[in-house]
Amino acid sequence: MEGRRPPMERAFHLGPHGRWWNNPELAQKLGLTADQQKKMEAVFQQSRPSLMDLSATVRKEEATMEPLLGVDQPDEGKILAQIDRVAQARAELEKANARMLLGLRRVLTPEQWKTLQAEEPKEHHPYFRPGPGPRGESGPNPE
After folding, report:
1. Could you report the per-residue pLDDT of 93-103, keeping only the tens digit for each?
2. CATH number belonging to the domain at 7-119, selected among 3.40.50, 3.10.20, 2.60.120, 1.20.120
3. Of the candidates 2, 3, 1, 22, which has an alpha carbon nearest to the alpha carbon of residue 13?
4. CB 66 within 8 A of CB 56
């Protein structure tokens, strides 16, 4: 699974212009208002601390796994228990990210949402729709 983000993480991409709702070309194409952009930024900023903490927790749990696997006589019980902790940390991160994405989507009109989905370049990163993508970190870049 290394090298791949979970589906909801893949859905969020900051892109070359930073947060996609601040990309002037895309904002114009979608017809985003300044108020919508402000609301989307607020959703992002409200979610950011939690996403940072949850991303750190995933990295910590993954790091805890490494020495368990590196010993001469691996303890299956400890490894399986740690796998459960890693999976739970990833699940919590994915849920928090999904809440943020849904908050962003609620700001859009149905027409803007359809336009955003249609706008996604096939060779580039998606704005919302889940799909394959590289794993730059354990969560969206909240910076």
Report:
1. 999 999 999 99
2. 1.20.120
3. 22
4. no
